[in-house]
Amino acid sequence: MDTQKVDMFIMTNGKFFESFQVAQIRDRLISLDDSKWNLIQTLQFKDPVISLIVSLLGGALGIDRFIIGDVGLGIGKLLTCGGLGIWTIIDWFLIMGATREKNMAELQKVLY
Amino acid sequence: MPLPGKKLYSILFIACAAGYIWLGLNISQGHHEENIAVEVCLIKHTTNIPCPSCGSTRTILALLHGNIMDSLYWNPLGLIVLLIMLIIPLFMTYDFVCKKELLLKMYYKTEATFRKRKYAVPAIVLILLNWIWNISKGL
B65-73 — which CB contacts under 8 Å span 24+ positions? Predict the structure, then answer.
């Protein structure tokens, strides 16, 4: 794929992935066929900052987990007062990483 | 894009263990169902409003003491939590011994079910109704 296109993608979407993944994503995108560009452009990624805000406000009800697509864990948090309050606090620190992981999984579906 | 299996098993194991430790602590503290189980809830502490699952511990304790009507009164969600807490260790041991992935499959199936709107919307409505009931009970 065109390097310019890939760099544009990285510039706009780099914040949705872990920093160590970005170089790998870039290499993979460059080696990818041009026909996948349209598909990649239509992907919607979840913003880690939004999920952090949701986690701070609605973490005790598990809404943060529901939003990033972990429905099962969301139910678990909802039914246990946010894991007795402890899981809520742990998730304030984990949720941004978890969101980035979900984004990576989403992108990987197209890449591989 | 579900969770990888190993991570899920450790999360469920920790959650279950914490649940049993919490229950054990409450049982060893005595039989005063009214005075316990509210002190860890973040929502209850910050807003003074009970959260949707407040009262689950009291439900389970009441059930253990044989007061079925009481346990239904406190919070019916507690019974679901108890059921999950009973099922997960069983499945986990089975998976561990027989090297299968039954629990994982069940988890993914539950997730897929609740992603569908026809199951998600009634579930949300039920949870909200239960929450309103919780608030009106003043748990």
Answer: B65/B31, B65/B33, B70/B33, B73/B137
